[in-house]
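Priority: medium. Attachment 1 of 2:
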């Protein structure tokens, strides 16, 4: 049964966490999300406002969920009853982000836990590493906010992505340019 706040707002959560019905095609790895940076994204120093960067990483993560599971965060919460509250966010800045180039956000799954997922994100512009991030979230039943395991088909979809990611990382490591 949804909590009072959810009912008051007209939200209806499923009675239980609902798995996805089908596993979508596994996206290429690493997962890449492109974002245009505009003048409106900048601060008086004429570089991207630092506070925007976590939001862009969250955009990339939501795109990752949509690509890997076939559903976005809104659908995960309201249609599937699965919440993903963050338990850790970290960014390390290397070079300024500017409107000169699109921002490429490279998302990798760094850990698939029994009740959590952790991702690393690299932000690059024009071949330059601008920042790295570490983002971890718990898996919870949206109504009770109690930790749960990923439902079986969702877990399989994530495991398939990890297999593609691991193969891609092994291929990159073995390439002559890396030796």
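Attachment 2 of 2:
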């Amino acid at each position: 049964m949804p909590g009072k706040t959810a009912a008051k707002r007209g939200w209806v959560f499923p009675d239980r966490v609902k798995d996805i019905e089908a596993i979508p095609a596994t996206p290429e790895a690493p997962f890449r999300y492109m974002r245009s940076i505009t003048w409106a994204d900048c601060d008086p120093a004429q570089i991207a406002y630092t506070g925007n960067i976590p939001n862009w990483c969250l955009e990339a993560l939501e795109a990752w969920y949509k690509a890997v599971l076939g559903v976005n965060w809104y659908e995960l919460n309201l249609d599937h009853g699965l919440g993903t509250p963050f338990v850790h966010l970290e960014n390390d800045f290397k070079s300024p982000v500017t409107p000169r180039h699109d921002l490429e956000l490279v998302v990798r799954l760094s850990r698939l836990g029994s009740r959590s997922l952790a991702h690393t994100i690299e932000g690059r512009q024009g071949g330059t590493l601008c920042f790295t991030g570490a983002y971890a979230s718990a898996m919870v039943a949206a109504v009770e906010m109690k930790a749960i395991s990923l439902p079986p088909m969702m877990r399989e979809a994530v495991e398939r992505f990890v297999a593609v990611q691991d193969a891609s990382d092994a291929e990159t490591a073995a390439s002559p340019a890396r030796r």
